[in-house]
Amino acid sequence: MNILLISQYFWPENFRINDLAAGLVERGNRVTVLTGIPNYPEGRFFPGYGFFKKSHEEYRGVHIVRVPVVPRGRGGALRLVVNYISFAMNACLLTPFLLRSKFDMIFFALSPLAEGIPALVMKRMKKIPVMFWVQDLWPESLSATGIVTSPLILKIVEKLVRSLYMRCDRILVQSRAFIPIVQKRGGDAKRIAYFPNSAEELYRPVTVEPGALESTRIPEGFIVMFAGNIGAAQDFPTILSAAERLREYKDIHWVIVGDGRMRPWVEEHIRMKGMEAYFHLFGRYPLEAMPRFFSLADALLVTLRKEPIFAFTIPSKVQSYMACAKPIIAAVDGEGAKIIEEAAAGITCPAENPEALASAVLKMYKMSETERRRMGSNGRNYFEMNFERNRLINILNGWMREMVEENPRCAF
Are residues 302 and 317 in the same domain? Predict the structure, then answer.
């Protein structure tokens, strides 16, 4: 198959769609990714990239075509909205000139606004089917993260999403809880399927030798590690408040490996509260370093704000944590907590409850190493049964082939 994958963010930005695209290439497909200029999460173009630099690249057999975007910046929501719109507009305007190949299908996953509109334009132009992998429910996620607060704009986005669901040939959802909402918004039940996130193959239990870079950074004591985006959705006020409650336990350290728009606020809070001795911001590291950092943690942390929409979501870091066989502390509601409890892979507590999170950390802290190791092993076993990368990509490849074969203009 010749697959057009539309993703506003792609390598060298660190998103799971990178590995999925490479996995499709591994199965004999030709994959072209239409994306923007890398600028996540710093909010500025990566070194060496610009409006007229590296517009065509290759990554693990994937051909990359880039269109200009306004970088997302590190400021307010307006800049982020402009970033979304700039990608959608330029993708619609430039793809007829940039993409002249005959594709069999279109796949997109991250943004119904930035990616969905170009996908429908390309569907109409090339008369090929579209598959949408729903990672977040819009407009609810825009409202919950504070990106958009205007009721009028949220209503417009809702109408756009409804139109998109009605026009997609196949809709995949990363959480089963999404299915009734997608159906209510116009998605045909016969065209919807559950397809969870996985984790790259490098996510597995590893051993880090003494003196390695990762080990030199980790303080001595009990390590609670959070990895990923430092954003509004991740509820850092609750994490910081829980850490303050446990400050008398001098050997409990909170380690954050990641970056994001909320980092300046977190840094200021740490400074004002005098938390530098036990709350550590390591910044962003390459994907390849993450399993090594995870191996040095005693527990891995996942948090989300207490919003109805987030209760439907399975945070993608849950799969990465499970794959590395480490116990999980989760301050989340709904589906994310349900998965961890079902796997017996950690301790869960309600979202936005600092006291409950502090209690969960303390409970994990007081457990024996054997108990924590058992939780990690449970998580790894659950991952292999439900989220293993190659099995899921094989399923996706099969669904894509079925969809293309049903299209009378099938070209492969």
Answer: yes
39 token code pair: 């600028």
Residue 206 lies in a domain: no
Domain-located, residue 205: no
Q: Are residues 289 and 142 in the same domain?
A: no
pLDDT in tens, the chain (412 residues): 999 999 999 999 989 999 999 999 999 999 999 999 999 888 899 999 999 889 999 999 999 999 999 998 876 678 888 999 999 999 999 988 888 889 999 999 988 888 999 999 999 988 999 999 999 998 888 888 777 788 888 898 899 899 999 999 999 999 999 999 999 998 889 999 999 999 999 999 999 988 888 888 999 999 999 999 999 899 999 999 999 999 999 999 999 999 988 999 999 999 999 999 999 999 999 999 999 999 999 999 999 999 998 999 999 999 999 999 999 999 999 999 999 999 999 999 999 999 999 999 999 999 999 999 999 999 999 999 999 999 999 999 999 999 999 876 544 4
CATH number at residue 173: 3.40.50.2000
User: Is the domain of 400 the same as that of 355?
Assistant: no
Do 121 and 138 share a domain, yes or no? yes
358 is a domain residue? yes
Q: Are residues 394 and 365 in the same domain?
A: no
Same domain as 301, residue 272: yes
Same domain for 259 and 393, yes or no, is no
Is residue 283 domain-resident?
yes
